[in-house]
Design a protein that fits this description.
FAD/NAD(P)-binding domain, 415 residues, globular, binds flavin-adenine dinucleotide, six-stranded mixed beta sheet, 27% strand, D-Amino Acid Oxidase, Chain A, domain 2, seven-stranded mixed beta sheet, alpha/beta
Length: 415
């Protein structure tokens, strides 16, 4: 017989969006269940660069200290150079913000810390491994999910189901929610190796060479995470050329790392490809179900905005769902909450996506005239501190670092 469970909220996906939502709602005394298909939180490469705003939010949620105890890494500066010429240097200490530094936090560590904090609330449950395989419906309303676990099938009934199942969301498909997927012109290949000893620590580096670029992000423990762009779908050709093709690309962008790359990256299996696309979902909810995080809006990895928006989505949605659960006519109130959630969040996400696409366009310039313009632009920004503050501020500080940024966002749209 199929096991039956009920909860006040059922979340599909134990990523940053799903877990922060569950933590925030369970902290209000609600009964919330997270369904996660993976047995553990281990994932490499993804979601490590956390914007200062999210670091601030993690601090507000009392998660920052447990993360610091595990020695996460704070980035103090950023530098962009082209063909060995420094163009732009940023010192995050110059931003007058309570929390000015981005951080590098491996996602498994982040997820474990969120789940541990959530587990301290009696209303929180996580089921894993458990895969959502179908939606339960009553007339036109989603009333929960059907899951497959190693012990058998179970059904979770809930007044609200949250699809936080990431960039390839199946919940979105099951719900029949339309989305527009737009591939970017280029993909990114990632690898990790020891942090170069000669490099100043705690700095992000972006190296450009015509229409090629690579990012070098220091990461825990004493490593550097390298991401370099390749033409869309170009991995097959690159691999066919042998691992020497990767060395050549790296030699163009960071010649001083030649020996380190050759020593540590010996085959393509030491690398990981990220298919870059953005997803726009015109309507994030249907009655009884709402999408959040990457499922609602997949962003490109440029400037590391994905986790930021996943966390902010989670906090706004948890506040609205909690209020809806407190009143009469819960079903109607939850549907209004879902609509309001999209209204509050969608514009912020659009701003981030537009910023990322502009930055990606700048990186793809290749003609002598356009690359000269790019160099002049970066040098001009570098030379004018107020402009630097404004331009970088838009990329790195997107949420007011106040005691209750959720209330501020709700007020912003008059919702
Ligand atoms: C290679 C890579 C590098 C990245 N680097 C950065 C970065 O540096 N900074 C940054 O901010 N963002 C980065 N991102 C993006 C970031 O990881 C995402 O934006 C963020 O994780 C989104 O959180 P989420 O909770 O919405 O989705 P996810 O983190 O994708 O979580 C979704 C969860 O749902 C689970 N799931 C899926 N289907 C089901 C199902 N049917 N049943 C049960 N569970 C299911 C998955 O196992 C997963 O745990 C990167 C992404 C990738 C792929």
């Amino acid at each position: 017989m199929t096991e039956q469970i009920t909860a006040q909220a059922c979340v599909i996906g134990g990523g940053p969006a799903g877990l922060v939502f569950a933590l925030a709602l369970a902290a209000e005394g609600r009964d919330v269940i997270v369904v996660e298909k993976s047995e553990d939180f281990d994932r490499s490469f993804r979601g490590e660069s956390i914007l200062p705003d999210s670091v601030w939010l993690l601090d507000q949620l009392e998660l920052l200290q447990p993360l610091r105890d595990q020695k996460v890494l704070e980035a103090h500066g950023l530098e962009i150079s082209e063909n060995g010429q420094p163009l732009l240097r940023v010192d995050f200490r110059q931003f007058d913000q309570p929390q000015p530094f981005p951080m590098e936090i491996p996602q498994p560590m982040l997820l474990r810390v969120i789940a541990d904090a959530a587990s301290r609330h009696p209303g929180f449950r996580i089921l894993r491994p458990a895969k959502a395989v179908g939606l339960l419906r009553d007339g036109g309303r989603v009333t929960g999910v059907r899951c497959r676990t190693p012990q058998g099938e179970l059904e979770i009934t809930s007044p609200i189901t949250i699809g936080a199942d990431g960039r390839y969301s199946k919940i979105r498909d099951m719900a029949g929610i339309e989305h527009q997927k737009t591939p970017l012109e280029r993909d990114v290949l990632w690898f990790k190796m020891p942090y170069p000893q000669a490099w100043e620590p705690n700095r992000y580096r972006i190296r450009i060479n015509q229409d090629r670029h690579a990012v070098f992000l220091p990461t825990h423990p004493d490593m550097v995470r390298v991401g370099f762009n390749i033409p869309k779908g170009g991995l097959k050709d690159l691999r066919a050329a042998g691992i020497g093709a990767l060395y050549t690309r790296m030699d163009e962008l960071a010649p001083e790392l030649g020996a380190l790359v050759r020593e540590n990256i010996t085959s393509w299996s030491d690398t990981m490809m990220l298919d870059i696309f953005t997803t726009v979902v015109p309507q994030w909810s249907i009655p009884g179900l709402v999408l959040a995080g990457d499922a609602a809006h997949t962003l490109s990895p440029i400037l590391g905005h994905g986790v930021n928006h996943a966390i902010m989505d989670a906090l706004v949605l948890a506040r609205l769902v909690d209020q809806a659960l407190a009143g009469p006519d819960t079903a109607a109130a939850l549907d209004r909450a879902a609509t309001r959630f999209q209204l509050v969040r969608e514009d912020k996400v659009r701003q981030a996506r537009d910023l990322q696409l502009r930055q990606e366009k700048i990186f793809t310039l290749s003609s002598p005239l356009t690359t000269l313009t790019r160099r002049s632009l970066y040098r001009m920004i570098n030379a004018l501190p107020p402009v630097k503050q404004r331009v970088l501020g838009r990329a790195y500080f997107t949420i007011p670092q106040v005691a209750d940024p959720v209330a501020e966002q709700l007020q912003d749209v008059g919702a």
